[in-house]
């Protein structure tokens, strides 16, 4: 193979050495008569597939960051070890994608320089390991976190138009090494096969926007109002979750609803706590080591008041935002105790804040008494009942009779033969399509979706017309005055046509120029 004009021997050698791990010059390679064999071509194809595989995983890794705090909590419940596993995920993914990207770029440059693609056996082993690691990651995602496949589908509504442009650009650049290989090889069958596959892929990409839809493809005057914010356990990125400090931080973020979880102590005092165990969000292991594993409802109120419900937040740093807290906020966090429901209702009443809660655990043998005690605290607090949003399904009819002003929120979609109309529903964001959200909006049903932390997801739901979202990142979503992008369909059509035309001309130019 002759070097193409402009590809010096030194450059070819610098490309060949890291790819083949052989520190010999390109001229010596020629004297040996080395050429790219069918086996080498197979390994290049495998390298290309591994690169695409890791690239898809990188996309998934970025998407699932919205829900990664749930994964951290799950790991803590299993191992009692707290770590921000999102950092581990991103670092590992960055290493894998960087490695496969560098190898692919080297291979493409070697092809343009007319050098043999002799991939070293060490790279072959590492590529196989990379493929196995990514396959294991996808398998684990499908088994333990299957709802994230729905998240990926929703993400395409936010990224689809831009992914199309990026993929078309990448495939267009691929025309150069492909044309170089086709003009150098003497195998006519292989030439025809590669050309057919390449142009079939390009035609599919050129027509892909026919299947790309997004609720954010609309005119500015069609944009629904910005969704209201519901603080998930308050403002857990700025203060320890389910504390009065977290409630007050949520008020500062213009949150309209404080979402929390209620349990009832052994002596009948409702208090705020999400986990059935106290180990994650208190120092119960230090204060009551022999009782640390017990259910939260096994402790009386006097015992609960002895626990520190804030220091864990500074020690474990459940969110990166903890590092940027001021000295006064850190001091306040260290003073936090487990609040009673009565204290939370009083704070909500003073701030004109609605409160929405689940009553846990639903399978407790004394659950009906929990409902009665909780209702008693609500009625005694003096908070306007329309500011109370009731989530528990158990004994709902009893609640309607004793506190008729309470707003009932249902964790399900409406039924076809609904006896009484639903006014409020609360569902995971993966369970509602844009079309369903629009339909519920037309039916005057308030839809709250949880948990929404990333601006791209908030933008999609905003364009869809959702009423409110439950979020950990109220301080981020508060600052959003507009969806990340809003594009009229006519403008996107113009971008689509221009992108395809430019790509087609560049591909033709590559084949003509290299000939």
TrEMBL record:
The keyword Cytoplasm does not apply. The chain crosses the membrane at residues 41-65, 85-113, 125-143, 163-183, 192-212, 493-514. Keywords: Glycoprotein, Hydrolase, Membrane, Transmembrane, Transmembrane helix. GO terms for molecular function: glycerophosphodiester phosphodiesterase activity. It comes from the Eukaryota. PROSITE patterns: GP_PDE. InterPro entries: GP_PDE_dom (IPR030395), PLC-like_Pdiesterase_TIM-brl (IPR017946). It is found in: Membrane. It is a multi-pass membrane protein. One of its GO terms (biological process) is lipid metabolic process. One of its GO terms (cellular component) is plasma membrane. Residues 227-481 form the GP-PDE domain. Belongs to the glycerophosphoryl diester phosphodiesterase family. This is GDPD2 inositolphosphodiesterase. The lineage of its organism: Eukaryota, Metazoa, Chordata, Craniata, Vertebrata.
